[in-house]
Amino acid sequence: MSERSGGRNGGRRSVWRRALTPPHSPASASPVPTAAEAEPAEPTSVVQAVLYRDGVRVSSPATLAETYRALREQAPGMAWIGLARPTGAELQSLAAEFDLHPLAVEDAMEAHQRPKLERYGDTLFVVLRAARYLDAPEEVEFAELHVFVGPDFVLTVRHGAAPDLSAVRRRMEDAPELLALGPEAVLYAILDAVVDGYAPVVSGVQIDIDEIETEVFRGDPEVSRRIYELSREMVEFQRATRPLVGMLHGLMAGFAKYETDEELQRYLRDVADHVTHTSERVDGFRQALTEILTVNATLVTQQQNAEMRALAEAGFEQNEEIKKISSWAAILFAPTLVGTIYGMNFEHMPELRWAAGYPFAILLMAVVCVSLYVIFKKRDWL
């Protein structure tokens, strides 16, 4: 990254902004406001703004306007400005001061971007997806970080809680020889912090997968939902880590062209190794979850088949009992029918004075009952 010539608000104003400004808008009819005009009040989203010279902190301005002024007065130096969920007006103020590309500013405003690295002239725009593991709900939370890196400035725009850039700043200030290498060193330190933040997530997910495997073979009915939710998180994790591999290799490919310091080259190669390892672990997690989901579906199917078989066996046993009850009911109904007929009291009735009537009725009842018993026994109803 080479130093820019001329003032930021002077004749070197980017043609990108002039080209994208509507012809009849107020911006085209009036000159670009100064930094003080563009920043009338202290922005509430500015986390910290610090100026450095030769790797040593020089000042910590309270507002963006003071930061702009101090950077001009103390040149050569470097400004590191951190913002959290900035407003459009705040980003426009930074864009006007540091000549940021409108497309990059638009991305930083809207967030929800995929990890990427783009170069606009002598400014790099980097989008990163940070992650952290939340122990209580046992889930992964993702945040977005946008980084603008110029010849004498680093702007970080956070959309989310992670990563902790204050720790990165302290670590860099404790190594002034590294911070003296300029904005590129800060970018690599931020990349390293984001990638290091993946390690606890990987450990937490590994524990979750181990627990899920136990729950699957234990037959926990809620495990399917947990597998699905963790699989979705791993998809997001892949979207955060996979593009980083290509981004870092792209930066390494420009070492010779941009005369990157050898120490920074080693720094970035180490970060690239960690990213590759994390990406491979995440791919393995997703594959493992797919296999666990298949095993769980198989076990659930087997359990359902066993339950269906048990229901079928219970139904069969009930049918057998019904057959027995029905058979005995039919057997007992036969003598009842005969006895009912012979028990009718009428004056003129056949066989009324028949001497063999009673033994005949008893014999008839016995024959019918035995016949029904033999028939039902042959059909295995009894």
Largest sheet at a glance?
7 strands, mixed
The helical percent reads: 55-70%
Number of helices: 13
- In whole angstroms, the N-to-C terminal distance is 97 Å
The residue ranges in which pLDDT falls below 50 over 5 or more consecutive positions are 1-43
Rg over C-alpha atoms, rounded to the nearest angstrom: 41 Å
Q: How would the global form be characterised?
A: rod-shaped
Order of helices and strands: HHHEEHEHHEEEEHHHHHHH
Strands ordered across the widest β-sheet: 2-1-3-7-6-5-4
Structural class: alpha+beta
The pLDDT mean sits at 80
Q: In total, how many beta strands?
A: 7
Strand content: 5-15%
TL;DR?
This protein has 382 residues and is α+β, with helices and mostly antiparallel strands. 59% of the residues lie in helices and 14% in strands. The protein contains 13 helices and seven strands.
Q: Would you give an account of this structure?
A:
The protein has 382 residues and is of the alpha+beta class. Helices cover 59% and strands 14% of the residues. The protein has 13 helices and seven strands. The protein has helices at 15-20, 26-29, 35-38, 64-73, 88-98, 102-110, 165-173, 176-179, 183-196, 198-218, 223-253, 262-342, 357-378, and strands at residues 46-53, 56-59, 78-84, 116-120, 123-134, 139-149, 153-159. It has a seven-stranded mixed sheet, with helices on both faces. It is rod-shaped and about 140 Å long.
Present the secondary structure layout.
Layout: H1 15-20, H2 26-29, H3 35-38, E1 46-53, E2 56-59, H4 64-73, E3 78-84, H5 88-98, H6 102-110, E4 116-120, E5 123-134, E6 139-149, E7 153-159, H7 165-173, H8 176-179, H9 183-196, H10 198-218, H11 223-253, H12 262-342, H13 357-378
Parallel strand pairs: 3-7
Antiparallel strand pairs: 1-2, 1-3, 4-5, 5-6, 6-7
